[in-house]
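Lecture notes, continued. The same structure-token format from the folding unit now serves as the input rather than the output. Read the line below as a description of shape only.
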């Protein structure tokens, strides 16, 4: 967990830019092949790329801007600098002004227009209209910026064992999406599914499968008390993100990210090396974290955790974000016990813009207008949102 004091230490650390002379060979190389930008990345914290610093603008845990949050799942900065937050635990969209003060709450738990059972994705257009996806009801809801009536349309996966995860709603109402969590169980052993990158037409019918990507590596265990699954230790998975019609999907066996511009054809491909070797101390710390997470399981199942498999090398990266300028933010893999995560920012032209360091346990919700919205937890496990301004 990241406490406020830990975050403060990190912010101070961020103010010190990295020194040293750039290497003779650039760590980020960009070429254009048949109209597709190819970017080769040798590191997600390259010494020859400038560092952007950040400072906190507000946090919802402060007395003057305190907001009760429950299961924050998404957020988007609006054109007027406000922040719309999907508070899925209450089925509401909470709007905060540029100083963190609560302006409105819209929605609520239910199945009527403008109500939600869960919100897994938010998108916003240039007019400030929000599009929220409720995977449990299988529908997209448009929430106008002027507090007008919300409208809904169906948007559901073809199979009940998967969730859809929209990446971007295009200007013509087509939707780029992937499969989210796949609710598949096996008796024992390991399994890795695939996830399709799809483009849905305005009516919600699947129009095209753009590509197939390897998904999460799972380990399954079963006993007389039941069955369970857990991600493989340091296992591989898919990452995806989108904003303003631009979306990206990547597999982290190495650094392998493909970027699309409101199209079914790639605009950019970012590649790089796999992760380095996992040291024994990291394995022990990972096993300790797993045992803590499954402490309520029956004893027979907990004994099986000792045989939970892990990979000998770290993934090439962990997470992706697309900001409002269309830049791709690639977050490094956070190792056990690591309090900070390196991010490399690749611009629309394929050149490295900067590197940024953020708390490793914080989830980046959105990046727009030179600001970053994070959801974090304190020592008691309570959620709060912190907004940082990027100092370039």
């Amino acid at each position: 967990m990241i406490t406020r004091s830990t975050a403060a230490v990190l912010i101070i650390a961020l103010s010190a830019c990295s020194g040293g002379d750039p290497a003779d060979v650039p760590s980020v190389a960009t070429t254009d092949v048949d109209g597709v930008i190819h970017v080769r990345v040798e590191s997600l914290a390259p010494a020859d790329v400038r560092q952007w610093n950040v400072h906190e603008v507000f946090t919802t845990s402060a007395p003057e801007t305190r907001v009760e949050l429950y299961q924050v799942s998404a957020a988007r900065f609006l054109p007027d600098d406000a922040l719309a937050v999907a508070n899925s635990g209450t089925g509401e969209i909470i709007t905060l002004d540029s100083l963190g003060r609560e302006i409105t709450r819209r929605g609520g738990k239910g199945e009527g227009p403008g109500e939600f059972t869960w919100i897994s994705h938010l998108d916003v257009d240039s007019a400030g209209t929000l599009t929220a996806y409720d995977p449990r009801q299988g529908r997209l809801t448009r929430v106008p910026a002027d507090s007008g009536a919300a409208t809904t349309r169906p948007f559901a996966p073809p199979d009940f064992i998967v969730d859809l995860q929209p990446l971007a709603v295009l200007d013509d109402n087509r939707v780029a999406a992937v499969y989210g969590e796949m609710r598949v169980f096996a008796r024992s052993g390991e399994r890795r599914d695939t996830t399709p990158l799809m483009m849905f037409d305005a009516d919600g019918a699947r129009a095209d499968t753009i590509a197939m990507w390897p998904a999460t590596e799972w380990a399954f265990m079963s006993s007389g008390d039941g069955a369970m699954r857990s991600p493989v230790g340091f296992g591989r998975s898919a990452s995806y993100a989108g904003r303003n019609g631009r979306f990206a999907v990547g597999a982290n066996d190495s650094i392998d990210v493909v970027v699309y511009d409101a199209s079914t054809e790639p605009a950019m491909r970012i590649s790089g090396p796999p992760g380095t070797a996992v040291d024994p101390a990291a394995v022990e710390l990972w096993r300790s974290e797993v045992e803590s997470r499954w402490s309520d399981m029956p004893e027979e199942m907990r004994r099986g955790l000792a045989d939970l498999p892990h990979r000998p090398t770290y993934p090439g990266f962990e997470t992706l974000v697309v900001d409002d300028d269309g830049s791709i933010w690639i977050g490094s893999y956070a190792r056990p016990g690591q309090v900070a995560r390196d991010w490399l920012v690749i611009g629309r032209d394929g050149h490295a813009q900067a590197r940024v360091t953020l708390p490793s346990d914080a989830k980046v919700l959105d990046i727009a207008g030179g600001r970053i919205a994070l959801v974090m937890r304190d020592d008691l496990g309570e959620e709060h949102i912190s907004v940082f301004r990027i100092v370039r």
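Point for the exam: DSSP finds three helices and 27 strands in the chain.
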